[in-house]
Write a sequence for this structure.
């Protein structure tokens, strides 16, 4: 797997966080195509691990499909299940999780949202 669009002159920093353990891996954000996200970091996570990727003003919820060791880093391919972007989406999720305002469509019915609900 080749991670595309990494620019050493202007790196795009992100963080991959595991839902099952308190693991946070700093990484470089590669690209998103369809429902796949590519990133490169300094730690490994097994395939099947549910994760959230924090990048810029977006939160990507998904599952590690591939984690392959490169010469000095790990390349991740993540299947994205949900993307929350902008303060409005993030504040709506926060309100729903804290029980402030009932949402029109319960986000907690998504298994990935449930995995991160108490984190």
């Amino acid at each position: 797997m080749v991670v595309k669009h990494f620019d050493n002159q202007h790196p795009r920093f992100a963080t991959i966080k595991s839902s099952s353990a308190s693991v946070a891996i700093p990484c470089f954000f590669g690209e998103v195509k369809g429902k796949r996200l590519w990133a490169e970091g300094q730690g490994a996570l097994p395939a099947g691990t549910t994760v959230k990727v924090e990048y810029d003003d977006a939160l990507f919820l998904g599952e590690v499909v591939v984690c392959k060791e490169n010469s000095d880093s790990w390349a991740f391919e993540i299947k994205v299940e949900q993307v929350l972007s902008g303060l409005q989406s993030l504040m709506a999720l926060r309100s729903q999780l804290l029980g402030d305002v009932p949402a029109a469509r319960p986000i907690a019915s998504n298994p990935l949202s449930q995995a991160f609900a108490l984190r």
Notes: Confidence is low (pLDDT under 50) at residues 1-6. The longest helix spans residues 86-98. The radius of gyration is 15 Å. Residues 13-86 form a domain with the Thrombin, subunit H fold (CATH 2.40.10.220).
